[in-house]
Amino acid sequence: MNAVTTSLFIFMCAFGGALLGTLLHRVLPEHHVSPESKDVIRISMGLVASTLALLLGLLVYSAKSFYDTQTSEVTQLAANVLLLDRVLARYGPESADARAELRNAVNHQIDLLWPEQGSRRANLHPVAPTGEAIMDSIQNLSPKDDRQRTLQSQALNLGLQTGQTRVLMYTQRSVPVPRLLLVILIFWLSITPSWSACLSRLRLPVARSS
User: Fold this and answer.
1) By the 8 A CB rule, do 155 and 91 touch?
2) N or C: which end of the chain has fewer CB atoms below 10 A?
C-alpha cells in the first residue's frame, strides 16, 4: 500500500466517521441534551484530540527524520562519486576505462532514483552490476609508483564507501512507522466524530455542589 492509497483510505475512514456521527446525532432525542453533558464531552474530546495531536506529531517527526537521513545519504553519495572521479583523474590516463564505468553507473543510478517517467517508481537495489564493474576496473589498474598505488587505494576505499551508502539507502527506503500505531490512529480518527456526536446527546450524571 503506497502513500497515496493510505492517505485516501484514512480520509475515507475519517469522512465515514463524520457521516456516522451526523446520523447518530439526528437519531438521539433532543431531551437527552444538557449543558452538564456537553461540558463533560468537551473535556473528553479535548483529551482525545490532544492524544491524536501527539501521535500525529510523532509521525511527522518520524517522516522528517527519515527525509533528513535520506538527504544526508544522497549528499554523501554524490560527494563520494565526485571525489572518486577526481582521484581516478589524478591517477592518469590509465584510469579512463574506470572513469567511463563510473559515468555510466552514475547515469544509470540517476535514472533509477529519479526516472523521467513519473509513473515509474524509484528503484535502488543494494547490489548493482555497475558498481561491481567500477571496482573491477579500479582493481585491474597496474600502478607504476607509490603515488599511483596510493591513489588506487584511495579509489578503492571511496568505492567501498559509496557501496556502503547505497546499502544504507536501500535498507532505510521506507519511513519506520509501526503498523499497529497507524491502525490505532486511523481507528481513533474514524470513531472520534461519531463518538462525540453520540455522547453529546446523552444525559450524564454530574455531581452538583450544595
Assistant:
1) yes
2) C
